[in-house]
Predict the structure of KAD8 kinase.
Amino acid sequence: VERLCQRRTDPVTGERYHATFRPAPTPEIQARLRQNPRDKEENIEKLMDIYSRNVQDLQDFYQDAFYVNADQDPHTVFEFIESCIINPIPCKK
């Protein structure tokens, strides 16, 4: 929730910033940043609630799916997905 709530966009350049991880480089840019209404905390919490209520049904439906740890560099994630497609892990039946 924190990561999503702190996203901002510069309406002049379209550049995206994050209050903690990638702050605007100057006070001038900081002053003109805007938050997307979808990134407000109450909206994100609603989406997280919907996700929590439906995640088990999705896991049951997609039993043959594999878990991807996307908290890595993009090349590593790509190689993992590619290896799962080329050499799929045998599934339990």
